[in-house]
Each structure stands twice: as structure tokens, then as C-alpha cells.
Amino acid sequence: MAQSAPAYTRLYRHGKLVSEGFPIAEVSDHLHEEGAVVWFDLCSPSEKDLDAISEELGLHELAIRSALTPNQRPKLDMFDSHMFLNVYAAHYDGDTGDLELTEASAFITPSALVTVRTSDRFDVQEIIHRWDTSLAQAEHGVAFLLHGLLDYVVDTHFEVVQAMDEQIEGLEDRLFGEQIPDRAEQRRTFELRQNLVTFRRVVTPMRDMVNALFRRNDVIRDSSITPYFQDVYDHVLRAAEWTDSLRDLVGNIREAHMTMQGNRMNLIMKRVTSWAAIIAVPTAITGFYGQNVPYPGSDQMWGFWTSTGLWSIAALILYWQFRKRDWL
Length: 328
Description:
Layout: E1 9-13, E2 16-20, H1 27-30, E3 36-43, H2 47-57, H3 61-68, E4 75-78, E5 83-93, E6 98-109, E7 112-117, H4 124-132, H5 142-175, H6 183-216, H7 218-221, H8 226-289, H9 301-324
Parallel strand pairs: 3-7
Antiparallel strand pairs: 1-2, 1-3, 4-5, 5-6, 6-7
Pfam family, one: CorA
Transmembrane segments: 272-290, 302-322
Membrane topology: Multi-pass membrane protein
């Protein structure tokens, strides 16, 4: 089998790792060995590469087409001789707010697991590390390999949702600050909600996908590896529920921002109006008599102080009333 990019290969026999790093051309030599399980990985393969492995493994043309078509939804398709899996690893940069989703597919047969990645951001080395730290389960063959793959994917989901949760906590802390959220913070809140909506489209289908493995795969359902898949399923549920709650929380924060802006604007308008009313009293009095209209005692000093005292007292009464109503 030819390929356009370097690949990883592994051969397990009777639950033990016996070979790795061998050429993909030798994979077909091990497929029919008794007790042998083969894994190999392709990064951005061509259609010719997938056609070659299709002949060896008897893969359905729809599965091949799905692996070559980008932006497939997370899913698990069942065929007569194999299963097709599509998942996304997720990475979130808390500093820039960028959410990166890396798509990967897998062909699952009774004796082989073939992973197809769209980029190196899907960390195969981390999956290999998980396999190497749980070799006691290698006797379960392909189910063991599949668990390591799903465990890695779900863990990336958890890391993303945890990082987003920390950012939302920061938004909550600043929500009731003295300053109104500026344009940059409002934009960050909006982008965070967009990322949560996108991320939810990746996380939510994982529940049905992992659940389907239990219902339709006897190898997993009837073996001692079942608790490990149950643990993955529990993590999937937690990640999905956590994502839903965060999405609602960000929506509430945005609504709170808008409500607080409206309330503060109303408060500003009340203060401006109150001061305008206070200023209007002396302005009305002085403006009226400023039109060469004589007022009582206009020729006497007591008249000047009396009029000055009247508008001063009126202004103080208005100020006290506005303060009492918390308008000032």
C-alpha cells in the first residue's frame, strides 16, 4: 500500500506488542494471522491510499467517501464487515479565544484499526502513550485500541470545556464591577458563546456514538473492558452537560451585560434630569426678573437676599427629594 505521508504501524499478537514502525506495505501480511491485531495511521491520505486499504480490509465505499470528505459530523456507521468512526479532537487557546477542531476517522474491523487524520494536531503519540500504559487490556484487541482513541478524544473535550469554564468565571467576576464592560469584553463574550455552540456540535453526538458501541458491539458489551468504555461514556455525558450549562451561562451573562447597560443608562438619565430640575428653579426665577420686571424689594437689599434665599431653599428641597428617591 502506498501513501502520501509517513504513518505509524503496530502489531499486537495475543495481547502483546510484537512489532511497530514496519512499512504499511507489510500490513496485509499480518491481517490473517491468528490472534493478530494491526493498527496503522494515515495522515491526510489520498484517495489512492484509501482505495488500497479498502481492497485489503473490504471497506465500504460510503465509509471511504466519508473519510475523504471533510467536516463530517461525529458519527459511528455500522457495515457488515466493519465500523466507521468519525471524531474531533479539540484544542482551545485561552489567551486568544481560538477553538481548533481536528477531524479524524477510523475504520474498525475485527483484526485491524485504521486511523485517518486530517492534520498532526490530532496527537497520535498521546494515543500510543495511553496504549502503552494499559497493556494489561491489550488482550481485548481492537476494542483496546478503540478505547485509547476515544479516551484521548474525550479528554481533549474535557480540557476545552474546563478552559472555557475558567474564562466564564472571569467574566462573572467582572460582571458586577464598577466599569461597564467595554467593546473588547463584549466581543470576547460573544466569541465565547460562538465557540460553545460550535463545540457543542462536536460533543453532543458523542453520547449516541459511544452508546451505540454498547448496544451493537458484542465484543465490548460482553468483556472485562466494558467498564473502561463505561468510564468514557460517563465522561462524554459530563462534557456534554457541562457544555450545555456553560452555553446557557454565557447567554445569561450577555443578557446581564445588556440589562446592566440599560439600568446604568437610566440612572444617568435620572441624574441628568434631576440636576436639570434643580438648576431650572433658580434659572426660572432669575430669568423672569431678569427681563426688567421689578420684584418685591427690588430696590432694597432685603429683597435681593429674600429672592436668593427662596430659590436656594427650593433647590435644596429638590436635591433632598431626589436623593431620597436615589436619583442622585
